[in-house]
Amino acid sequence: MNVKINEYSLISPKSGPYGMTLGPDQEVWLTENQGNRIGKITEDGEITEYSIPTLDAGLSIIVPGVGKELWFTEYKAN
């Protein structure tokens, strides 16, 4: 079995990637624990980062929800 592995550098140097999931759009979504952002990586390697309004949220797990939703945890934000 041949497996293709692609590596991508996130935009922000202090991101701390943690949780990852395949979203309903078939893109890879991830939490940036230290960067307080959610990131998305397309099949073409395009990276988009979305800031979370909760300061120092401590993002960890991200999972697909119902329909086109994604759910993630903020373990430092109660």
What class do helices, strands and sheet pairing give? Answer: mainly beta
Gyration radius from CA atoms, angstroms: 13 Å
Low-confidence stretches: none
Question: What's the domain count?
Answer: 1
Cα-to-Cα separation, first versus last residue? 44 Å
Order of helices and strands: EEEEEE
Q: Helix count, per DSSP? A: 0
The largest beta-sheet arranges its strands as 1-2-3-4
What is the number of strand segments?
6
Largest sheet: 4 strands, antiparallel
Name the beta content range: 35-45%
- Label the overall shape: globular
- Quick check: average pLDDT? 91
What share of the residues lie within helices?
under 10%
Describe the structure.
- The chain has 78 residues and is mainly beta.
- 0% of the residues lie in helices and 41% in strands.
- It has no helices and 6 strands.
- It has strands spanning 17-22, 28-32, 37-41, 47-51, 59-64, 70-74.
- The chain is globular, with a radius of gyration of 13 Å.
- The model has no long low-confidence stretch (mean pLDDT 91).
